[in-house]
Amino acid sequence: MPWIYLLLAGVFEIGFAIGLKYTEGFTRLWPSVGTVVSAAISLWLLTQALRAIPVGTAYAIWTGIGAVGVAVLGIALFSESASPARLACIAVIVAGVIGLKLTSAA
User: How does this protein sit in the membrane (predicted)?
Assistant: First the structure.
C-alpha cells in the first residue's frame, strides 16, 4: 500500500504543478483552489508512504513522478519542446525512478 500512496502522491504533485500554470499567479479562484487542494492531498499521501518507504527513496520517486508528468503534460498542453535531448533526459529520470523502486528494501 505505501507504494500506491507514493504513486498517487506523485499524480497529485503533477496536478499541483500544472495547476500553478492555470492559477495565473493565484488570481483565478477555482484553479487556485484546485491547485492548493492537489498540493495538500499530495503531501498527505507522501506522509502516508513515508511510514514504510525510506525518505530519500520516497522523495526522489515523488519528485521524479512529478517532474516527468509535468514535462510530458507541458509538451502536450503547452507546446513545450519535445526535442530528442529533452526526451532523453526525461527517460533518464524514469530510469532513476524505476531503479529506486527496484532497489528499495521497503
Answer: Multi-pass membrane protein
